[in-house]
Amino acid sequence: MPLIGQSVVGDDNLPAAVYYSPWFSRGSDAATFFLQLLHVSTNGQVIVTIEHKNLADPDSAATTAATFSTASAVGTFDKAASGLKELIRFKYSVSATSGSAWLHLRVLPPIWQPN
């Protein structure tokens, strides 16, 4: 049976562990994005940032389109973003309040808004 989503780890002795999704093309210039936390250790939390850039820009030119609220409990969270550039990715910052923590998450397909 396949495992759905991604498991990530954070540690309180280090800055937040940062992970990036691959870039993908936008479907329009506005969308609602969904984050689903399937399991979170008791001391874990994640901040998911939606980054965007134009195709010709280097990765370092990515800017924040929107940020989900800090999530530390199982559930589904949504975030609307507009003014999106050509490419989009997610930045996951995982941290622990004590010791090390892990969580299992997935990002659901966005709902693109008509232009």
Tertiary shape: globular
Main sheet record = 5 strands, antiparallel
The beta-strand count equals: 9
The protein's oligomeric status is single chain
CATH fold group: Jelly Rolls
Task: Extract low-pLDDT stretches.
Answer: none
CATH class: Mainly Beta
Distance N terminus to C terminus?
39 Å
Q: How big a fraction of the residues is strand?
A: over 45%
Structural class: mainly beta
The CATH H-level superfamily is: GOLD domain
Percent helix range: under 10%
Number of domains: 1
Q: Quickly count the helices.
A: 0
| SSE pattern, N- to C-terminal | EEEEEEEEE
Rg of Cα set: 15 Å
Do you know the CATH architecture?
Sandwich
User: What's the mean pLDDT score?
Assistant: 91
Give an account of the 3D structure.
The chain has 115 residues and is an all-beta fold. It has one domain: GOLD domain (Jelly Rolls, Sandwich), CATH 2.60.120. Helix content is 0%, strand content 60%. It has no helices and nine strands. The strands form two sheets. Strands 2, 3, 5, 6 and 8 form a five-stranded antiparallel sheet that branches. A four-stranded antiparallel sheet has the order 1-9-4-7, with no helix packed on it. It is globular. The chain starts with 5 loop residues before the first strand and ends with a strand. 23% of the residues are buried.
